[in-house]
Amino acid sequence: MSAGEHYTGLKYPDWLESLTEAKTAVEKEQFRRYILRLRDRQSGRDIEQKSMEIMDQILHLHEYVRARGIACYVSKGSEVDTRPLIRKALDGNKRVLVPVVKKGDIDLFFSEIKDLGKELAPGSFNIPEPREEYLRPESLDAVDVMFVPGIVWDKEGYRLGWGRGY
Question: What pLDDT band is residue 82 in, cutting at 50, 70 and 90?
Fold first, then answer.
């Protein structure tokens, strides 16, 4: 079972065995919508439980344990809830960088956060990111482990994201 199947509890449709088989942008967009509909049907309790299971696995990974800094998306909606992971990293004195996309721009950069509750507000695409007064742009050289958002991953580990090219 892949991570995507574990999180959604759903089997991949027979018509798409692997994300690499989705050759056209139209196929990828159809698959995105299909998976999002299924994912969004989960209860808040299911999302929380599955997110905690995933976080527990992450906290025991050697790569995470030894990391001095992480880069992590700040979750929204039915995504795996990353806030507990970010809090745990901050409490463990790890540097935490989150992605920022300036409104009206497509360039992405990373900013360090120090207080998850105080520093964030809805940003581009309604994704939580640091408020202007808390922007601390940082190089990814400060990062040992990166957690990226995605809609689904196939059995080979290929990721289908939100379709914006990040």
Answer: very high
Contact 54, 80 (CB under 8 A): yes
**Residue pair 47/78 in contact by the 8 Å Cβ criterion:** yes
Residue 134's domain spans which residues?
68-147
Is residue 95, in this structure, part of any structural domain at all? Answer: yes
Residue 88 is assigned to a structural domain of this protein: yes
Q: pTM value?
A: 0.79
> Are the C-beta atoms of 6 and 159 separated by less than 8 Å?
no
| The predicted structure's pLDDT at residue 26 | 77
Q: Which residue has the higher pLDDT, 9 or 148?
A: 148
Exposure string (b/e) for 88-103, b if CB count within 10 Å is 16 or more?
A: ebbeeebbbbbbbbee
